[in-house]
Amino acid sequence: MLRRASIIGICAILLIVSITSVALGAKVKITYWEKWTSFEAEAMQKVADAFNASQDKIEVEVVTTSEIDKKTLVAITAGNPPDIAGLWSHTVVPYAGKKSIITLDDYAAKAGITKDNYIPAYWDMCYYEGNLWALPTTPASLALHWNKTLFEQAGLDPDVPPKTTAELDEFCDKLTKKDAAGKIEQIGFIHTWPGWWKSIWGWFFGGELYDPETGKITADAPQNIKAYEWVQSYSKKYGAEHLQTFQSGFGSFSSPENPFLSEIVAMEIQGVWNANFIQNFAPDMKWGAASFPYGEGGHPMTTLVECDVLVIPKGAPNPDEAFEFIKFVNSQAGMELLCMGQRKFTPLVEVSPDFIAAHPNPYIQLFIDLAKSPYAKFLPQIPVWNIYADEMGAAFDRIWLQEQTPEESLKEVTARVQKELDRVMKRR
After folding, report:
1. How many independent structural domains does the chain possess?
2. What is the pTM of this model?
3. How far apart are CA 123 and CA 134, in angstroms?
């Protein structure tokens, strides 16, 4: 009897300790995998620190993770995912299609988070087939960047960039230098630098890659063919071999040997982040940024928009607590802390005047205006985009090397990708 009483007493003590622990606010620890390093990782760590200090119920740990899209999928399959993963906007559709992440509709509704809070494109990138699968963090848009000193040396007004592709061609001729043997020493513009966006040139001529109304791939639309004829005209004009030899001397993007930073490429298409690299590797450069030139049928203020996103993986141990942190990041204070730390703009509509005034990128308002443009575009939300992107990359290379006409190459892309898309959609 005495022993039974002792056991009951011990159990009572343990229960009291457990209750007391909860009452004292023992924090739930959540894990957040993110791909960023260097100053970008430091910026998010400051946001995590601010969140942890703002309340006493949740503690978030930020873990830098390479190849995060692959490793997150492996962890989900193994049943051991993080509570939050930081992915890219183009990964939302494949993850959502596999139901590898959970929908955020109910969480967002409860928190009062709606599309009206965001620049439309960044919300739309997180929304797929009637559900919200992610929320954005740091956004981007693309613009023309030009070297004002090289403009002056070529007799061009350093403060007036080309507005159309025809003007870009004229400027390029004036900015290109060759030696006596015809070897290119400096070029005005080259489509293969940095070569990250081989599929989007049609946008600047009014083309589209996909028609969501019909479910049809439109790589070979007339506007796209016209755009890639323009691309190929550079290869024909300057010589594919000469261009390859010239580009073989380029250094990596994040180095002083970056050809734009080393002043052997006068104009380039780049994102809002480019100001960071100019400041780090070429701080004395005089440069400008403007909407990328548009061709026949195209429009000013055409741009690619993309962003990083936060998702809650399927099987995450603490989804409620995970969303609390995502909500904090998507507050005006949290987002501005993150985006200022990474020297980008915020995807939110509401922006404090101090954020713009204090921003180190002198063209930050341009990138915001581009993101809000009716001609701001993001990559097609289709489950075979990775295949489409690879096909467009291969087509670009064939066009650039003059192995095929743009019409031939883009018709092949359309046929191959449409067949794959139809197969996937039929299976689904």
Report:
1. 2
2. 0.92
3. 9
